[in-house]
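Lay summary. Proteins are chains of building blocks that fold into shapes, and those shapes determine what they do. In this project we predict the shape from the chain. Here is one chain we studied, written as its sequence of building blocks.
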Amino acid sequence: MFFKRCGTSPPPTPPKNANKGADAEARAEHYLQQQGLITRDRNYRTKQGEIDLIMAQGEDIIFVEVRLRSHRQFANAAESVTISKQKKIIKTAQYYLQEHQLTEKANCRFDVIAFSDDHSNPEWIKNAFSAY
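And here is the predicted shape, written in a compact code that computers can read:
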């Protein structure tokens, strides 16, 4: 039998974009809280996908995709939420609603918070896409 000695290898370094992404998500959450929304969950993951932020505003549940683009060469941050990404978010949101027994009573919406890398104010796109 072979055993690996504990503590001999350094932990893997996260990709450079991971810190920028986490920072953008924290900034988006703070911005939305300033607008009166309440955080329900962060980085909610299932086999279907991930939702960056799940917020509440009154009786509404808002599923938020946070996007950060440092280069606008191909698309801006908001345009980078593809149909494929939308479908994953919708399936993940459906799972969240079922898991929390909210399928019958929740009003939902899908928003996008988009940042450019110049640390300007975010672009908040309410009802960016629909599940129907």
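What the prediction tells us: The beta strands are 38-45, 50-57, 60-69, 107-116, 123-129.
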